[in-house]
């Protein structure tokens, strides 16, 4: 079957993660933790403050250096249009920058839905949406809900919720349960001092891979949690569950789409390559899923590679054994393909001629951009091509 987009190899796209949460929830602490435990990956950050004194930007400036883009002109979702955001993304996504993941740390007053829209609407070919991470303060959660009832909507939109400062909450289990009930299908992870495993958000690379170039890990004392340290190095970060899946028989596109449409709460990331066998003999399909967001990208099979499906699933509290069996059931080694079998997949291939209305969330999910809203990609429109 094939697709014209797969005729040439494309460079790896850089995930752009939106880091949100109300004032004092611990976003900057979490960002600093990611920087210190990056495993050799280079993190570019867009740090947004509401106010004239950019305290948050100064807190991470030592770790980020020239990779910091500080937006001091107010709330990002109000003050910077998509075109401006593309300027900053272009700087961080430039091949010479060597950035592996971009984090937008939003103001505590920013509207997460608008930030997600801006990333999805970006026309930059080198980036891809990396998820909305909402940080909440467990110790002050009830008070935050009373003062900011919109937090319930923010949690419903999130792809990953970090319940921070759990050690300070006298009723931690109740808060965790309440957050999970509000967070729809998002992965919900408990944390103290913003310590989550960076593997949730991006692929960590060994620092020694960067010959002649210092990684962020080289610049910091691993015994400190931030500039100057805070004495909490003994607190382990939240772990994650992962599944590595390999299939020799090709995957049936309809079965795989049913699996993806019904992926469970807690399954945060899916990455890898899919072999659809007779449905497209020329291309493998790179798959990128974060939360409810999904993308496929066809690309020619490398001549030296075995034609296998290789997927990695990452989440919190997921049943890896059950997921492995579900994926095994998606395999189909039938020698022939039916004409309509790939339609479900092609919905998530940007610029696909077969299905022009490329929706960022699977059919049947709670789309944050319902019909009639200001969806940047209304049905039938041409979404900016990520190719």
Structure report:
The protein has helices spanning 27-36, 55-64, 76-79, 82-93, 112-121, 141-147, 151-157, 172-182, 253-261, 320-328, 343-346; strands spanning 14-20, 43-48, 68-71, 101-105, 127-137, 160-164, 187-190, 241-247, 267-274, 283-290, 293-300, 309-315. By secondary structure, it is of the alpha/beta class. The strands form 2 sheets. The chain has a 7-stranded parallel sheet with strand order 3-2-4-1-5-6-7, with helices on both faces. A 5-stranded antiparallel sheet has the order 8-12-9-10-11, with helices on one face. The two termini are 19 Å apart.
Topology readout:
Blueprint: E1 14-20, H1 27-36, E2 43-48, H2 55-64, E3 68-71, H3 76-79, H4 82-93, E4 101-105, H5 112-121, E5 127-137, H6 141-147, H7 151-157, E6 160-164, H8 172-182, E7 187-190, E8 241-247, H9 253-261, E9 267-274, E10 283-290, E11 293-300, E12 309-315, H10 320-328, H11 343-346
Parallel strand pairs: 1-4, 1-5, 2-3, 2-4, 5-6, 6-7
Antiparallel strand pairs: 8-12, 9-10, 9-12, 10-11
Helix pairs in contact: 1-2
Radius of gyration: 21 Å
Could you give the order of the helices and strands?
A: EHEHEHHEHEHHEHEEHEEEEHH
The number of distinct β-strands equals 12
Average pLDDT, rounded to a whole number, is 77
Order of adjacent strands in the largest pleated sheet: 3-2-4-1-5-6-7
Helix fraction bin: 10-25%
Contiguous uncertain segments of 5+ residues: 1-10, 208-237, 354-387
The termini sit apart by 19 Å
Q: What is the chains' assembly state?
A: single chain
Q: How is the biggest beta sheet arranged?
A: 7 strands, parallel
Can you tell me the overall shape? Answer: globular
Question: What class do helices, strands and sheet pairing give?
Answer: alpha/beta
How many alpha or pi helices?
11
Strand content: 15-25%
